[in-house]
Amino acid sequence: MAEELKEGLKETTNFIHQKIDEDNESGKYGGNVHTRFPPEPNGYLHIGHAKSICLNFSTAEKYGGKCNLRYDDTNPVKEDEEFVKSIEEDIKWLGFQWDNIFWASDYFDQMYEAAVELIKKGKAYVDDLSAEEIKAYRGTLKEPGKNSPYRDRSVDENLRLFEEMKEGKYADGEKCLRAKIDMASPNINMRDPVIYRIVHATHHNTGDKWCIYPMYDFAHPLEDAIEGITHSICTLEFEDHRPLYDWSLNELGWWDPQPQQIEFARLNVTNMVVSKRYLKKFVDDGLVEGWDDPRMPTIAGIRRKGYTPAAIRDFCERIGVAKANSTVEIGLLEHCVREDLKDKVPSRNVVFDPIKVVITNYPDDQTEEMVMENNRNVPEMGERTVPFSKELYIDGADFMEVPAKKYFRLYPGNEVRFKGAYFLTCTESVRDEDGNIVELHCTYDPETRSGSGFEGRKVKGTIHWVDAKTAVKIKVRELGYLMNEDENGEQQFNEDSMIVKECYAEPLIEEAKAGERFQFFRHGYYIADSKLTTDDEKVFNSIVGLKSSYKPK
Ligand code: ATP
Ligand code: MG
């Protein structure tokens, strides 16, 4: 991990690390700790994968071990170069570096040999039942399954048929290879699971060499064992598959010591979808701009939205490693982002839903340079100057014709502090014939200049502003949650998840580079969009608000 990212990370422990400690004590793996992150390259990684990446890579790091990136490409689909590239970019962005990159399909020969070995041992057989028949024979949680009529084929016949499957003599689904375990097992995964199937398809890596492909449950333990993985960390839904993982390795007996599978709870986050399949649908249906749309919970999306690697890793550590599934509040993730940004990014003044203010008693051609701190918490971040003159813009929300209770901002007759400048009093609101406010007239008190030590009187409200003459028009994309709960408690796509606004910013915003983050004073944290920001047009995405009611435990 990059040194600057390591800073501030605590040494944590969890039940997986405790297991590793035990193994290290007993000498099971000779002190080696070798993990892997095994994505299927069929989509972009999401926040759930980030959890798995953090866990696998930091576990290896903690124990001075290794972590491989392994593409799980046992399904014969076309490789998508875009997905492979994105996976590598995302892992690096999170601050991790793999020891090796492997492709599961490189092990097809060994996997085939393993299947043949099981047949020879009488532990696997070729079945002619169709997929539906196999399902019907499988039984239920309450009832045992039934043996296939093909279960007792001789070793020689099985070897011949499996060879013929490999040679392409049969159509997809006509035959398959099943492990011969126990059709009455209380664990349905152990009721003679299919371990090889026929698929006549071209594989991106092995081309047309194979028309039989191993099933995930059989392939995965072999991949781990071949690479010398010690602790194969996966999510909870594979807990019931662990007996098959162990069975495959035990029956082969090829490796000593054997890798062990350890399960932890999947990460779920409120208002987020952590399933590539669903996310792909959003992309394919055009509901979002792409996999890296800043509303997407993909790593590429949250990167574009302005979340930082440090915040994501902090989040993954805080939620810890659980043995039971649960859903984490998105507020915790946002809290981590805010914590990381608050002392790092400079402040800029940006006005939303602008209203023009004219200071009637301010000299026509005068401009003053007002000094403002870049970050209130961090004096070392220095100061900047911001022009102030007769015409300004303020936030639409900072004026009310008829003030609500406890409204201390601008309204006719009220005096407020214009941050870093003067006290102004609103004297009049000017409307067009349709009744819309065109501009506000104010007067200023020259005695009250910021920094002059004026103590004559106090005002309750402070608002920000930008100078009208030099204001820069920017586009701001206010991003909401991608998913919302409907009245039935179902998650559904939030149609209002992106609201685009035209805003006015202080002139320094011209220098903002794509990917640069700011605090828009009194509004929140924003990032110049990495794809849409050009020299001519600045487009910002909202990262996170300034405050929240969320309190981390
Ligand atoms: P999806 O359902 O989104 O496609 P997946 O589990 O099928 O997810 P893989 O590419 O197979 O995606 O996953 C790679 C690794 O990431 C696996 O080890 C998987 O267990 C882990 N992983 C995936 N989703 C999560 C999650 N929500 N929380 C923790 N780990 C996850
Ligand atoms: Mg998968």
Low-confidence region ranges:
none
Mean pLDDT: 95
Q: What gyration radius follows from the Cα positions, in whole Å?
A: 31 Å
Tell me the β content: 15-25%
Please state the second-level CATH architecture of the largest domain.
3-Layer(aba) Sandwich
- The rounded distance between the terminal residues' Cα atoms is 28 Å
Assign the CATH superfamily of the largest domain: HUPs
CATH topology of the largest domain: Rossmann fold
Total strand count, please? Answer: 29
Ligand catalogue? adenosine-5'-triphosphate, magnesium ion
Helix content: 25-40%
Main sheet: strand order: 12-27-28-29-23-26-13
C-alpha geometry = elongated
Structure description:
The protein has 553 residues and is an alpha/beta fold. It has four domains: 2-107 and 217-336, HUPs (Rossmann fold, 3-Layer(aba) Sandwich); 111-215, Glutamyl-tRNA Synthetase, domain 3; 352-467, Ribosomal Protein L25, Chain P (Beta Barrel), CATH 2.40.240; 472-545, Beta Barrel (Ribosomal Protein L25, Chain P), CATH 2.40.240.10. It has 13 helices and 29 strands. The strands form eight sheets. A seven-stranded mixed beta sheet has the order 12-27-28-29-23-26-13. The chain has a seven-stranded mixed beta sheet with strand order 21-18-19-20-14-17-22, with no helix packed on it. Strand 24 (483-485) and strand 25 (491-493) form a beta hairpin. Helix 3 (47-62) crosses helix 12, helix 8 (216-227) crosses helix 9 (242-252) and helix 12 packs across helix 13. The longest helix has 16 residues, at 47-62. The radius of gyration is 31 Å and the shape is elongated. The mean pLDDT is 95. The chain binds adenosine-5'-triphosphate (ATP) and magnesium ion (MG). Residues 38-40, 48-49, 51-52, 72, 234-235, 266-267, 274-276 line the site of adenosine-5'-triphosphate (ATP). Adenosine-5'-triphosphate binds next to helix 3 and strand 8.
